[in-house]
């Protein structure tokens, strides 16, 4: 109870302070508004442009105060940032009488006017800094105390950091490269329903919903819809969209909602045609990632090593992988259990082939229990997995080609006769061999950039925690 009373008193003190300081705040706000009117028409620059200007140049820019430190009663050192970069500024409160009535704080959005100057070597290790002539908050200086969702507020403040701005620029680059490679190979982007009949998600851990009195679920993947699109004559399709999984985890290793890049296509020879396309798609991202300037900013917060990859990606069969693990002393009595030791297998491949990136092939249903594939909510006959830094980043293969075979697989998961009636009749139609692959965008970024967790790559994440 004492803690509760203490919090109430603090809130009352804050309200009293607000009422006392309201006249000063309103007067300062009027001054700011008048000053802002007088600065309209100035040549506003981004910080990226400012840092490339010469010493003595007068500049005006909008920025957020990242940090503010008083080095004396009359001198403040500020660190500004915007979406393009950051710069230091020196604020003399004696030279700017108006600033005495302004209360500046971190995360305040301001308009800054000043001159570029060289900092003292012992003061700053950066390039030019701004000698501030004018700094104007671009919102009301005081706001009434209000309650907010602490976690959401913390995430918003976190997203303001340059590291997160750069991370989501890289995320956009990844999707852009995926799309470019696929569209160059005549894939069509489609968008499929995320509300699906419950029976299409065989034993996958899905969110169940009531659809006008009928059972349904949020899509765990878009495989079935992509398969039906191929049955309809779309030979090559892809989708980048949300998928949902209800798996409960005590860690932050899973997301309730994530973005998946799902690919579907017919084969000319075998599903190795699909492997080649996915391989090209991933390599295009590796090459672009190494050259993108945002990588340096991301690494300041999440240190990572450059990816080691080969022009010709090693394709290792299950037999070869099990042999490598056996030589390493692993127990391979159960093949599917041994192959779940992804990190160790990745280390062995790195030692042998000198690469962080490889493909594990021939994961057919007679080599892994069918329940493994069904637990993932997918219906394959031949499988492959693609690994990066010892973690699986993509799974794909040839899809079950007919309604009859799909029903045989469903029966192994104790599906009911009613479920059989929900199998799409389109699967009865004749079509060439076809299959697909899936990449979880957030997990891919987690591995690619060696982030602290998969939630770092999601703007506002939802997980089981």
Shape: elongated
Measured on Cα atoms, how large is the radius of gyration? 28 Å
Query: Which CATH top level class of the largest domain fits?
Result: Alpha Beta
Q: Report the uncertain regions.
A: 17-22, 35-39, 141-147, 365-380, 413-422
Strand content range:
25-35%
Calculate the mean pLDDT score and round it: 78
The count of strands amounts to: 17
CATH H-level homologous superfamily name of the largest domain: Bira Bifunctional Protein, Domain 2
What is the SS-derived class? alpha+beta
The span between the termini is 28 Å
- The CATH topology of the largest domain is what? BirA Bifunctional Protein, domain 2
Portion of residues in helices? 25-40%
CATH architecture of the largest domain: 2-Layer Sandwich
Largest sheet: number of strands, sense, barrel closure = 8 strands, mixed
Q: For the largest sheet, list the strands in their spatial order.
A: 7-11-12-17-16-15-14-13
Count of folded domains: 2
How many helices? The count is 14
């Amino acid at each position: 109870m004492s803690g509760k009373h203490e919090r109430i008193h603090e809130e009352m003190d804050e309200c009293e302070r607000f009422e006392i300081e309201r006249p000063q705040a309103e007067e300062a706000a009027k001054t700011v508004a008048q000053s802002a009117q007088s600065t309209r028409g100035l040549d506003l620059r981004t910080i990226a442009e400012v840092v490339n200007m010469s010493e003595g140049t007068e500049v005006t820019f909008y920025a957020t105060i990242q940090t503010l430190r008083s080095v004396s009663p009359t001198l403040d050192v500020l660190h500004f940032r915007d979406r393009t970069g950051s710069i230091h500024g020196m604020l003399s409160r004696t030279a700017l009488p108006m600033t005495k009535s302004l209360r500046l704080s971190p995360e305040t959005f301001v308009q800054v006017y000043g001159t570029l100057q060289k900092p003292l070597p012992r003061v700053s290790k950066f390039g030019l800094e701004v000698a501030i002539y004018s700094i104007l908050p671009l919102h009301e200086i005081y706001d009434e105390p209000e309650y907010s969702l602490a976690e959401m507020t913390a995430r918003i403040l976190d997203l303001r950091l340059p590291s997160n701005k750069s991370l989501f620029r890289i995320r956009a680059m990844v999707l852009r490269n995926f799309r470019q490679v696929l569209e160059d190979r005549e894939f069509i982007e489609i968008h499929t329903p995320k509300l699906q009949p419950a029976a299409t998600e065989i034993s996958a851990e899905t969110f169940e919903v009531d659809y006008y009195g009928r059972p349904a679920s949020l899509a765990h993947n878009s495989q079935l819809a992509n398969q039906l699109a191929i049955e309809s004559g779309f030979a090559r399709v892809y989708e980048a969209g949300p998928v949902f999984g209800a798996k409960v985890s005590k860690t932050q290793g899973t997301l309730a909602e994530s973005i998946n890049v799902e690919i579907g296509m017919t084969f000319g020879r075998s599903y190795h045609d699909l492997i080649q396309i996915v391989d090209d798609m991933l390599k295009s991202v590796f090459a672009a990632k190494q050259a993108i300037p945002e990588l340096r900013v991301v690494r300041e917060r999440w240190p990572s090593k450059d990816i080691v990859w080969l022009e010709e990606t090693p394709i290792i069969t299950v037999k070869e992988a099990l042999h490598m693990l056996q030589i390493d002393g692993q127990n391979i009595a159960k093949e599917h259990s041994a192959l779940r030791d992804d990190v160790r297998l990745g280390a062995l491949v790195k030692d042998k082939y000198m690469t962080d990136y490889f493909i594990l092939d021939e994961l057919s249903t007679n080599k892994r229990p069918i329940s493994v594939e069904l637990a993932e909510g997918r219906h394959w006959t031949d499988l492959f997995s693609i690994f990066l830094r010892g973690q699986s980043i993509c799974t794909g293969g040839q899809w079950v080609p007919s309604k009859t075979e799909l029903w045989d697989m469903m029966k192994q998961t104790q599906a009911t006769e009613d479920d059989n009636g929900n199998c799409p009749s389109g699967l009865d139609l004749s079509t060439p061999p076809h299959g697909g692959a899936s990449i979880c965008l957030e997990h891919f970024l987690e591995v690619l950039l060696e982030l602290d967790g998969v939630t770092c790559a999601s703007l506002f994440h939802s997980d089981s925690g």
